[in-house]
Structures are given as structure tokens and as C-alpha cells.
Amino acid sequence: MKKNKRIFGKIVMILSLVFFYLPIVCVVIFSFNGSKSLTVMKGFSLQWYERLFRDSQMMESVYTTVLVAVIATVVSTFTGTLAAVGLSKSRRVVKDLVLQINDFPIMNPEIVTAIGLMLFFITMRIERGLMTMILAHIAFCIPYVILSVMPKIRSLDPNLADAAMDLGATPWQALTKVIVPQIMPGVFSGALIAFTMSFDDFIISYFVTGRGVKNLSIMVYTMSKRVNPTINAISSLIIGVITLILIIINLIPFIRERMTARKKAAETGTAEE
After folding, report:
1. Which domains are present in the chain?
2. DSSP H helical segments within 89-129, as ranges?
3. Is-contact 6 202, C-beta < 8 A?
């Protein structure tokens, strides 16, 4: 009976992996298609990659996407980390209330957030464009950073900052040299989530943009209305970049461990001599 359950579990896992990854494989394969067809492979060609890099609008959308994502990640990570540290020193009632408010943008459907931001910019008579897109991305990224940093702060000794200041550190030094290094994994994961959310966003970006400013998701949406295999090319490049980043992220701890082990071995050998 247990053996049958294990076999069934493996079959379900394999089918799930196929369901999730087969479309990605198809996108990569058809990005090298020699024809315009999105379903029939007719020879190998790099023409869609060539057209991609020659398309000024597409390259501009990639630049806009990366620019907005980087700015939103930096600002939201800095603001969200400071907010999380400040909340940890606040009264319990205030902290619980702010954290509940912080959960609203995460739980709300994106369409509600998008319409709310659009109406806000219209009411304030702010012309929609690149700046409104950046502000909107910062607004919806901050809650994710706070949510990632707060568990790390809860795990710290609450008297850590006071002890650092008793030893002569200023409040800023206690924050940057004592608190932040301890919560860095949470800060890094929050920054990674913020960058991913900003890079991937379509609905909010679509409602708050203007003056012809388009990020990559909006550009792909406009291209999907007609048969354009360039979509496969840009999608394949994004998949390749993400895969490379994941490999690097997973290799860094391994390389650090190897370097630390070699350092300890060298120090041990020197001490024995």
C-alpha cells in the first residue's frame, strides 16, 4: 500500500513538473523557429533575436522595466527595512495595527490597487508616465519587504541595539553595524521579492503609465494581439537571465564554504608548523 502511494506521488510530481515546465521549454524552442508560426517548427533560425535587438521600442521597454525595478527595489528595501526596525520598537497596539494595514495591498486584488493608484494620480493632477510608474511600484513593493524583514527582527535579542549604544555606538551605527547585518537574509529576500514583483507587474503598470511609457509586460501584451514570434525571443532571454541569477545565488554559499574551509586548513597548517 505504501509502495503504491509512493509511486502515485512520484507520478503526480512528474506530471506537475511537466505541466509547469513544458510551456517554458516550448517557448525557448520556438524562439529559434525559422517561420512565424507559434505552433509548427520549420527550421532553426536566430532571426527573431536579431529583430528583437533591432526593435527600438522593445529595447526601450526593457530599459524602462529594469530602471523601474531597480529604483523600486532600492527605495522599497531601504524604506521597508527602516519601517520594520521602527515597528519592532513600537507599542504592540501600534505594531499590530500597522502590520494589518501593511497586509492590505498584499491581500487586495491587483486591479483594486491599480484603480486606486490611478484615481489618486488623477485627483492629485499628476501626469502619468515614468514617475507615476516608479511611485506605484515602490508603493506595492514596500509591504513585501516589511513582511520579509519582520520575522528576522523578531528573532533578534531586543536589547541588542541598547547594548551597542551602551558600548559607545550611535543609534545610526547600532542600526547599520549591529542590527542590519543580523537581518541581512531577510533584507536580501525582501529585495529579491520586490525586484521580481516590479519586473513582472502588468496590471498596476498598465493603469498608472502614460505618455507612451511601456515596461516589458505592457509591450508583450500589445504584441500578443498579433502573431509575433519576437515574444518567444524576449521570453527566452528572460528565462536565461533568471536561470543564471539562480545558479549564481546557489553557488555563492558553496564557494564561501569552500573558501572558509581552505582558510581554516591553511591556518591549521601554519599553526602546526
Report:
1. 58-264 (1.10.3720.10)
2. 92-107, 110-123
3. no
Distance, CA of 161 to CA of 185 (rounded, Å): 18
Longest CA pairwise span in the chain (Å): 76
List the Cα angle 46/49/53 in 5-degree steps.
140
Matching residue, cell 513585501 = 144
Exposed/middle/buried for residue 120 (C-beta within 10 Å: 0-12, 13-18, 19+): middle
Summarize pLDDT for 213-268 with one digit per residue, the tens: 888 888 888 877 676 778 888 888 888 888 887 788 778 778 878 887 787 777 67
Burial string for 232-257 (b: 16+ CB within 10 Å, else e) reads bbbbbbbeeeeeeeeeeeeeeeeeee
C-alpha–C-alpha distance, residues 194 and 218, integer Å:
19
Enumerate the β-bridge partners of residue 44: 33
Distance (Å) of CA 221 to CA 21, 40, 254? 21, 22, 39
Question: How many Å apart are CA 202 and CA 214, to the nearest integer?
Answer: 10
Q: How many whole angstroms separate alpha carbon 239 and alpha carbon 25?
A: 10
